[in-house]
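quick one, 143 residues, struct below
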Amino acid sequence: MEAARSTSAFTRVAQWTARTSGRPAAFVISLAVVLVWALSGPLFRFSNTWQLVINTGTTIVTFLMVFLIQNTQYRDSEAVHLKLDELIRVTSHARNALMDLEDLEGPELDEIRAEYEALAERARKARGRGSGTPKAPGTGKPR
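---
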């Protein structure tokens, strides 16, 4: 099953913005804007308008970036979940019930977490003694 590439303008802008805003050049440009603004303070006698320019600019940029970056992170998270689901699905001793963990409530997650913490503890003890491999929860088979 081949996934179709998204051609949505919003998706392209969101991905480009997320990539670009994380680069050193974006930081340098932002720093330069703030420095120019700060150095221009005496020229504008540190007026309310001078202060409003930076406050308004940063508020608008922050507001828009939150939505664009959230969109990108959500899509990345969904892709990672799907890839992990596929790995669980094709792994012979994996528990397929783990494929929808993100939809479970706190107590259900706590129960599964406790199983894996116990498995990790057994693995640490086994490693310390140099003995066998602990069993995966729910399978009775070595991990």
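DSSP finds four helices and no strands in the chain.
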